[in-house]
Design brief:
Chain B: This is ABC transporter permease. The complex is a heterodimer. Chain A is α/β, with parallel strands linked by helices. Helices cover 46% and strands 16% of the residues of chain A. In chain A, helix 9 packs across helix 10. The chains are: A alpha/beta, B mainly alpha. The interface between A and B is medium-sized, with 36 and 32 residues.
Chain lengths: 437, 293
């Protein structure tokens, strides 16, 4: 070998080392790693992506699936909830993503539009009885009828109230018949001012989407988008009315504002300690309430009715999707997993964790016998049945939601008037919707 | 001789690969994707100058440029002057010199996540310590980072950036000052120069290369400001108002939250052009005041 060839070989060896280091390996090749006991070439490998790891998806469920499906070789890929989005985006770009994983429903919708998610409508039609499930099963359905995933669970809101605060003030506790006007009136009565400072508020005036501006605009008869999810409805005067009511509460001081919440440990702490009498609480937060504030005397009712007498219960779903780029055998294994997930055994387990509501009706029925706070869990379950709505989620949700939030924040701290704010939002949101066509 | 030459190439190979993979390739690739529509998930589609035109036509891009320009204009002079003054003080024969140097350098090693939380609290309109001090001396509270006036917000954040960066700049200038020969200072003293004259006529001219370096680095870091804005505003998803945006926040949002790699790359390149322009501008005036002898 000449010297040149030697050097070339050496360079090649270096490059191979580097390439080997950068390759993440692993694919849906259906092979079991060598040396693994019981491995056979027929075994299908299923890669499951778990954001938030077993804190979000209980380990019991995964272990149960592994035990009951010996022909499927399960590989778990975990990442903290906050890092999962960037990890999965990189994996998708490099074509090394898991076969099945879950993320926020709105994100799933955009993955579907980009051709990453498998349309599950035919699988659902073949294997599930839709009437055994609540409508939330179809959170990831597009107006065109494609279903980009099935829910990991549903997380609706209800009106939580601090019983002791109501009793002390001699104000009757909320009921399912309340309207938003009742909520506002009660908030005024429950607010205690000491000089310039307010020591107790009636309600927590959150201005995030799920328990803030979205329910307020829905109850006033407005909406973010129209039914086809292609037109902005921020130009609807009713939408502005809802935002105005929320702003008035904050401005006139009977809703707790963001500074007060920050200074007093956050929404949950303010509600639990009785510094605010009412709160639009998401179902999953009951776990934190029971862990951190076991002594608080609280319960929930359905969120108040809107001006048209109807109820709108915003609900957030995290959704499992199957990668459209997986091999067919892995897709089938992924659907096996999702079927197992939507089956009685797992749905009952989900009820017990309390971190999310299951989508199967039979499992939901069990909540009636629950003895943990809040006792009136039907406020959540019946609420969904009566008026469960998603947050007008579509494929561009992440984009227009950020734009709306930017302006809503400005409105709520008084930097922009509601009138000017909604005009600005309407133009921006419609721009995003139009550019995605 | 020739054999030694080969080994040289081989030993530098890992670094060459590093530069090619992590610097040259991203530079070339980002130029390419700035001319494409790419969502990370599907193959890039060539769309010519569309991204560039779209970014240049966007109001928020110009708002972000205005903000970062003002941010640099406020931050760079304050940081440079403060770093110089502090370095001069710490170069004197004072007690507990080490302690003071540590004190000024501490923010440099404080992570933004912690520093940001503390500053957000200090700036809080109702409960912040800064407004508490103002109120206790009979002044009205000020909306710092919640203000509807973008200049107020940008100025407040520039102050935080000074807090974070002054330590590093101070160390650089201090290093320059310590190289000023004692004999020169003594000679100037014999000639009757007082403290101020010594500072302006002797010390400053001799450390101008360091001051210049600090200015260039501060300008670049100002235009690249990202952590300070994110640290103080929390997160993009919670809604940073458009009037408070800076280019790097737009790049981050477009690339990693919205998967619009094309516009993100075009914005990043435009930012590069602006930083280059400013650096060349500073370089042009270098000869007029920087002494290298």
């Amino acid at each position: 070998m000449s010297k040149k060839v030697k050097v070339f070989t050496l360079i090649l060896a270096f490059m191979m080392i580097f390439t080997a280091c950068s390759s993440s390996g692993g694919s849906t090749d259906g092979e079991t790693p060598p040396g693994e006991p019981g491995g056979s070439k027929d075994k299908v490998t299923l890669k499951i992506g778990l954001p938030g790891s077993y804190e979000v998806t209980s380990k019991e469920i995964i272990d149960g699936f592994i035990a009951s499906h010996p022909h499927i070789n399960v590989e778990i890929q975990e990442a903290p909830w906050g890092d999962f989005t960037s990890k999965i985006a990189t994996q998708i770009a490099g074509n090394t993503m898991p076969d099945v994983w879950f993320q926020e429903n709105a994100t799933i919708l955009s993955y579907g539009q980009r051709g990453v998610a498998e349309d599950l409508s035919s699988y659902i039609e073949a294997d599930l009885k839709a009437d055994e499930y609540i409508d939330g099963l179809f959170s990831a359905k597009t107006p065109e009828g494609k279903i980009w995933g099935v829910p990991h669970g549903i997380n609706p809101i209800a009106l939580a109230y601090n019983q002791d605060v109501f009793e002390k003030a001699g104000v009757p506790v909320p009921t399912d018949d309340w309207t938003y006007d009742d909520l506002i009136e009660a908030s005024k009565k429950l607010t205690i001012k000491e000089g310039d400072k307010t020591s107790q508020f009636g309600f927590i005036g959150s201005f995030s989407i799920t328990n803030g501006w979205f329910p307020w605009i829905k109850q006033a008869g407005g909406s973010a988008l129209d039914d086809t999810l292609t037109k902005s409805r921020f130009d609807d005067p009713k939408t502005a009315v809802g935002l105005q009511q929320l702003y008035d509460g904050l401005d006139q001081g009977y809703f707790a504002d963001i500074d007060f919440l920050k200074a007093n440990g956050g929404e949950l702490e303010v509600f639990a300690s009785g510094k605010a009498a009412m709160y639009f609480l998401q179902y999953s937060l009951q776990v934190n309430m029971n862990e951190s504030f076991a002594d608080t005397n609280w319960d929930v009712v359905k969120i108040p009715k809107g001006v048209d007498g109807k109820r709108y219960v915003p609900m957030v779903a995290n959704t499992w999707l199957v990668s459209s780029r997986a091999k067919q055998e892995s897709k089938d294994a992924a659907w096996e997993f999702l079927k197992y997930y939507l089956g009685d055994e797992v749905q009952d387990m989900i009820v017990k964790t309390g971190s999310t509501l299951p989508v199967k009706k039979s499992a939901l029925d069990q909540l009636k016998d629950s003895t943990t706070k809040p006792l009136n869990k039907e406020a959540f379950t019946d609420g969904i049945n009566e008026g469960g709505v998603t947050l007008d989620e579509n494929a561009t949700w992440s984009e227009w939601r950020i734009l709306v939030q930017q302006v809503v924040n400005e409105i709520m701290v008084g930097n922009v008037s509601v009138e000017d704010g909604v005009k600005d939002i309407h133009t921006k949101v419609q721009d995003v919707l139009d550019s995605s066509k | 001789m020739q054999k030694q030459g080969y080994w040289g190439y081989i030993f530098t190979l890992p670094f060459v690969i590093n530069v090619v993979v992590f610097l040259l390739f991203p530079i070339v690739f980002s130029t390419y994707i700035s001319f494409t529509e790419w969502d990370l998930f599907n193959a890039p589609r060539w769309i010519g100058l569309d991204n560039w035109v779209r970014v240049l036509n966007k109001h928020e891009f110009w708002v972000s440029i205005r903000n970062v320009f003002m941010f640099a204009l406020i931050f760079v002079p304050i940081q440079t002057i403060m770093a110089f003054v502090i370095a001069f003080m710490l170069n004197q024969a004072i007690r507990a010199k080490g302690l003071f140097r540590l004190f000024y350098f501490l923010p440099v090693v404080t992570p933004w996540i912690a520093g940001g939380v503390v500053w957000v609290w200090m700036f809080n309109y109702q409960y912040g310590v800064i407004n508490w001090v103002l109120e206790s001396i009979g002044l009205d509270p000020v909306k710092w980072i919640d203000s509807s006036n973008w200049l107020m917000v940008v100025s407040s954040i520039a102050i935080v950036q000074v807090w974070k960066g002054v330590g590093q700049s101070m160390i650089m200038i201090l290093a320059g000052m310590q190289n000023v020969p004692k004999e020169v200072l003594e000679a100037s003293q014999i000639d009757g120069a007082n403290g101020w004259k010594q500072l302006t006529k002797v010390v400053f001219p001799m450390v101008t290369p360091m001051v210049y370096l600090v200015m260039i680095l501060s300008t670049i870091s100002a235009f690249q400001a990202f952590d300070v804005f994110l640290g103080l505003f929390g997160s993009i998803t919670t809604g940073i108002p458009e009037r408070n945006m800076v280019p790097n926040l737009l790049v981050y949002r477009d690339a990693f939250l919205l998967f619009k790699m094309g516009p993100a790359s075009a914005t990043a390149w435009l930012l590069f052009v602006i930083i280059l322009g400013f650096t060349l501008f500073q370089k042009y005036f270098e000869k007029k005041w920087v002494h290298y002898d």
